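Posting this for the archive.
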Amino acid sequence: MNHYSELLRYIKQLGEQDDFIHTITQGNTSDFDLDKSNIFPVLNVDVLNAGFTNGKMISFDLEIACMDIRDNNKETREDKFWKQDNEVDNLNEMLASLNRIWFKLLQDIEDKKHQIIEEYNKGTGPHNLGKKYECHPDVIKRILKEGNITLRTRSESQKCRKGEIRRKDLYVRLSEIELLYSQGMNYTQLGKMFNTSDVQIKNLLTKVKKPH
């Protein structure tokens, strides 16, 4: 299990891809070394805590700080709004770097959005998708909601985990099921053919018409 190391490597890689960042460190931000030998701007990664969501995945809370040297302007300025330093320029540049890193974090998962929706529609649940794409199940649920995908109920999810398809998906093939049923196939045979239970088939046909 090397989740912690992989997380640090990933954030470090994102920082290295940013043209503005010169030095990347990790550790408690409050203990950050302001040594002049550091080449600023500096990106510091602080892992605050970790939580175990299941047997194979760990979620982390991070604090990512971006810092640069504050230069004081020795010239007297009558405009008190901008002060005697480059604070505003620092904040503009630091926030821009953090925003670029945040965007890349989101983009990595957003690039797989259509694939996630497709796999969910085939029956894979948010927790299993979270394991596969190395993100929290809530991120998967957000992507599904943004894609106007209706989340399955608990009973539907249980059926999907067993390899069964959802009842509403069976309605799409209702005419085919009715035809085969009229030709003599029983509930069990139809259930095996359509990857669901005989009870699902029976309930489906009972709702549309009385079974013979």
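Residues 165-212 form one domain. The chain has a mean pLDDT of 81.
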